């Protein structure tokens, strides 16, 4: 038993008894529809921004540039800050909404936070689909961004907390799987709506986002709250009842007691964001923030936001560009399934490192081909080279989809202790959305100035992040969330230095008051798990 724990709290290393119950599977599938909405928003924006009718109505300057060869430059024809703002405003709004979502996640629960996200999504979809002017369009995107902020805060926590330890990784990746399915559906719908000659195809593309928005709202009404959240809010009997229901066994006392103890520790923390900056929480914070920054600097969202625009830029033509985006979307979904199957078998580190090699090589090949074959006024990319570019983009997307995509969300959601989990997830989502916004707002301008060198820029970041994983990212496979400190951070060559028990780590009280009979009474989570 760890020093300072209660006699009834199980020792580190115990895996709690749990069956894979239908209620867990159904709850996770319903909750993960938040990822479906997020993915659809990512995918649909790139498609509609390459539709002439949409550009003519909202971005006439870009429309003129794409149709006037005398002022056109392949790499620069879509370079417009307003057009980039349409895409990136969603992520800026999500960033701000995350701070409010942290409060609701902690004080109201994971389930109400998902419901709030669904309502934001529905209102945003209605405004976007019926937009009469650019202001209406941007306001709709901002409301969708608020939905993203709330959903991305609550859903990964919900999935990590409700899933049994041995399949936590696979169920958590349902969120990312739904993101990829949402992107694929958006690409397919964009491909179909681009054929509508009446000029309202873009409205249908934006309006169909109402389906995943409705599913998330319905799901939030149907799923159970997590026992962690119920216990954290003092609803012990209800939390125990839900735990018994989702684990499918009566033998839930050890896990229940550990959750109660973790909750007791959490209640001592009056300022979770301030506590997040304490020395003992630095390992989780550094890993979470770094993973979000690196995830965006793989270049994946640049490709997914603007896949149709990107393929059109390198000479595929509008129809072929949308078709190529559908192919990469399908690869994205299938490769995420690989991660669902393998993450709890191979572990997190192996997937990240293998993908690093694959992404680096594919981006270098793309840069070489575009550097040699695509000039500012190239009208067409030879078919054989075009196929190689699509294949290499698919190789890149597949590697991301079974590594940095899902694991960028999974690892932070399973490593923060309960007392800083909502705050930690908030910082994680905030960092992700901040850098997503930065890339979305800058990518078309970067493409204009860097040209083919944009892929070398991202590949250099892939190399850096792979080195980071080798030395600083520990393996978290099959380890209960509340035992991460004892079994992961205290055994890492670097991070264990931040958990030195001699360092003053009191939580809201004097350290000398935390000793009783020579033993800690457990206010320090580093001494608990």
TrEMBL record:
UniProt topology in membrane: Multi-pass membrane protein
Compartment(s) of residence: Membrane
Gene3D superfamilies (alphabetical): MFS general substrate transporter like domains
Major facilitator superfamily (MFS) profile domain segment(s): 27-477
Keywords: Membrane, Sugar transport, Symport, Transmembrane, Transmembrane helix, Transport
A Pfam family reported for this protein in Swiss-Prot or TrEMBL: Sugar_tr
A single cellular component GO annotation: membrane
Protein family: Belongs to the major facilitator superfamily. Sugar transporter (TC 2.A.1.1) family.
Protein name stated in the entry: Major facilitator superfamily protein
Origin organism lineage: Eukaryota, Viridiplantae, Streptophyta, Embryophyta, Tracheophyta
